[in-house]
Each structure stands twice: as structure tokens, then as C-alpha cells.
Amino acid sequence: MPLRPYIVGNWKMHGTRAMLSEARAIDRAAQRHMKVEVAIAPPSTLIHPVHREAEQIVVGAQDCHDQESGAHTGEISATMLADAGAKFVILGHSERRQGQGEGDALVQAKAEAALAAGLRVILCCGESEKTRDSGSALTYVKKQLKASLPEIPRGAAEKLTVAYEPIWAIGTGKTATPADIGEMHAEIRALLVELFGEEEGAEVRILYGGSVKPENAGEILNVPEVGGALVGGASLTADSFMGIALAAGETEEG
Ligand code: 13P
What is the per-residue pLDDT for 153? Predict the structure, then answer.
């Protein structure tokens, strides 16, 4: 049975407690769209408050440390996120790879720590505009993904989601063409099958991210192998975010 479309809001560094009303509105609307799995990753300070109030949506985090505890001032472990109510964590986002200098090995270690703490993982990958223009996007993304993916215990592949987010499409209003998205997602699927086997490799959802809006969501979500969307800016209001969830519910899978 195909998995439900997965629509995840990455609030990035946006949101104080004043945003809890928006989370509540998203939660209420999600109760009317049960064909779609709706989730948000608010800033860490809001994980517990959103978790306490949410009845339908799943709450996650945007990063975690690769150690369970220790002398790491300012850091938060996967165990702590799970304790606060997080069910998943986004790892390897390009804003962390670029802004915090996170390499593939660190992303992989974080993903393994997250799985060990019982969290699901959304692992991000994506190429820069320069790499896309040079014609090596497919090779680049597959290499990045292969080096960042965690070891998965047998039977646990459904705990992993991959998000393909071309860096040049994030927050720019530009999106990859359906043909380019389809080509990349097919390559990612082939890699997952090669690494995890036919059955488990097929269970990993592959999300697209980068300027997804209610207006373009239908077209993107109908591309084969697109199992949902990772949404930044348009996830900050219930209106636009649920517009995307609505489009997901109208896809052939939804
Ligand atoms: P935008 O939807 O704002 O382009 O951000 C995408 C993203 O980075 C989600 O993780």
C-alpha cells in the first residue's frame, strides 16, 4: 500500500510562543486531511508546547547532536528532543551544511544517534546552482547521500525519509522542473534500493523541498517518486501550509 503523502513544515529560526496559535490552526486543519501526514519542525523552544497541544500533527526538530549527553554547551541531544515530544529530526539541511560547516560524516553520526534515540530521520541532500549548471547534480547528490545515510537496522527503513532540496531553490521562488525532480528522485530511489534492498529501499519516502507553495504543490507532488514536501516559508501560516496539504490529498497517492 502506498504511504500517505508526507508534508513537513520546517519553521527554521522562526517562531516564538505567539506562533502556537498557528500550530493549533495547522493541527485543526490536519484533522480534516487524514489522507495526508502533516508534521512541523518548529524551533527547539516550541517542540514541547506544540507537542502538548497537537492532536493530529507530528512534531519534530531541525537538528540534534551526535552524542547522547556530555560537555557540549548549547547543544541538544536526540534523547532530549524525544523527551520533549519530538518524533523526528531533520538532519543535513543545506543551511547547516553551509552555515555550520556540517560534513557528511557528522550528518551520518547524527542520524545514527537520532535513530538510536527512537526518532525518525529526514535526511536532506541537494546541489548548489553551480553544480546543477555544471551538469553533475545527479552524481553530486548521490555521493552526498551515500556518505550521509545512517546504517539502518533490518526492518527499520521506514524510519528514514530523504528530502531532496536543491540549494538554489530554497527561499528563492525558483523550483526545479518536474522532469528534473523526477530524474533526481528516480536516482535516489535506485540508490536506496541498492543500499537497503528492494523491499526496504522502496519504503523510504523521498520529499522535495525548495519554494514549494500551494500554487505549485500539485504539479510537484504528482511527479513519480515524490512522496511529499519539505516546506520552509510557506509552512509559517496555516493557510498556505494547509493549501499544500490539500494539494497532497488530491494527488493520485493521496
Ligand atoms: P522554502 O520552502 O522557504 O524554499 O524552504 C525550503 C526548505 O529549506 C525546507 O527545509
Answer: 85
